[in-house]
Structures
1.
Amino acid sequence: MQRHSLILAPAFLGALCLTGRPSPGLKDYYKDYFPVGVAVSVRNITGPDTTLILQQFNSLTPENAMKMGPIHPEEGRYNWKDADAIVDFATAHGLRIRGHNLCWHEQTPSWLFKDAQGNDVSKEVLLQRLKDHITTVVNRYKGRIYAWDVVNEAVADNAGPDSTRILRNSPWYRICGDEFIAKAFEYAHAADPQAQLFYNDYNTERPEKRQRIYRLLKQLVDAGVPITGVGIQGHWSIFEPSPDDLRATIDLFSGLGLKVQITELDISVYPWEKERRVLRPGESDAYTPRLQQQQADQYKKVFSVFREYKGRITGLTFWNISDKHTWLDDYPVRGRKNYPLLFDTAGQPKKAYWEVVNF
Ligand code: XIL
């Protein structure tokens, strides 16, 4: 007689608690609210992390694999390997996929803004390149990627000398002016009319930047640009945002009729810093009981706001799986360990996890 129990996949065994029933994960606690996702690399979906992923999450975002630099390294040449592997894994396991991202000023390939002589290309050429890129990438995953971050982080952090200017002074803006934003959405919509299309940004709860993002979104909505929603990245810390600032942002954006998703959640145990630097001698990066408690409190607060907005928040994604590896280990401070997620370095649920699921 065949012993079926011996051939159960490790991921399934990992999801069994002592009673023999699968133990619930974040996705189960929040099933009446929104899908709960996580940003992944290929390494995550081919190694031991798969157990935690499948137990806890029902949506994936490729952390880097679909960005323009990695996926389109030379004009006309695409590198599909990693992106395909993540999409195949998600499809095989019935997970949703958010595509990230189609137009950003970082992680761009070196050829993008330049001609053969090394000069900036014209606006017409750059828009044509953007169109080719978006059409090819969106089309490849049509029907499998349900939502795209179409434009990422285009709004300026600080008000410039010209208070009417909303956008950051990136090569996109320098070469195309405002127009690239609407165009990016139009190209994506033409390639996959069913896909939900998002504008995605950080520091969305800070009043000044919130207002600039709102002005951009309103212009897009008023002009009939095919935008579905706005991604609040959620790169937060134990110090911010306050529940009221978070509510103000969700109210303002959703008041435009846009869906809201939390797209890159992590809660750093350090204050926000913009400039990159190295760890200073003597500066501690220990995860003290006090920090653990402050973090659990902050997670509890923001999730309680998320639940208030049931129906308006349609998705939530964590930016990395566990404290074993987070992009914040090297950003903005090189060599400083951070502990921003719900699972510890051994993949075990932290105090913050229990605050998030006990409601
Ligand atoms: C980060 C990745 O996590 C890192 O691995 C990479 O080196 C840099 O980019 N906002 C975004 C994400 O929209 O794409 C960024 O991801 C984090 C900030």
Note: The two ends are 45 Å apart (CA to CA).
2.
Amino acid sequence: MNVPDIIIAVDGFSATGKSTFAKMVAKEFGFLYLDSGAMYRGVTLFSMENGMIAEDGAIDEAALKAVVEDLDLHFRNIDGKTCLYLGERCIETEIRTLAVSSHVSPVSAIPFVRNYVDRKLRAFSEGGRVIMDGRDIGTTVFPNAELKVFMTADPEVRALRRYDEMVEKGETPVFEDVVKNLAERDYIDSHRETSPLRQPEDAFVMDNTHMTLHEELVWCLGVIQGKFGILEAPALSW
Ligand code: CDP
């Protein structure tokens, strides 16, 4: 099936499986996948490593503002996987820890941080045929995206998925901490002043609480076929 050169915006709450879904769609249809959350995590890691976040969580905004525009955060494709780099250093593993997760939402609520990330994301997407996931992609970064998906799932299922993901990576998270972190981030992300997490009015909503990945792919194909009037039978690779 011929999927046109469109921008697909995927938004939703924490750990709803946005990146898994977006990566799968990117691979299936030959799209560039961009993880906007990784950029916010990258800015957060940089701030933590450079003493800009105090133990009580207070952020030295003046110090961050002075350097943020010079941060060389970018993605590289390593063996088919998109990895975030800070200059020449791969920070893909470091940005996924619970420590970074616990500071990322306050950092990403800062307007000048959002400006920096938005500008980078738009530059990375030049040329189109991009699928990007985040919290404000369909509302702020690409309000004219041709296809918008809003993902949701039951909170317990989301927490369990994130917990399993961390255990698989060799971490030893406490389940209650994961639950707490997801709830806190959902709250801050939905209530911040600049670009809060919202379901775009023109988004297709997917509740994947009881869906397999294959069902998600079939769902996506159906939406694309319906939206773009593609009549031919879809050929899935799996
Ligand atoms: O993977 P997960 O859903 O846990 O989060 P993420 O996509 O890695 O995003 C981490 C955090 O970055 C979110 O909790 C938001 O605070 C922030 N974020 C944002 O504000 N706007 C985006 N477009 C993407 C992420």
Note: Residues 75 and 84 are 5 Å apart (CA to CA).
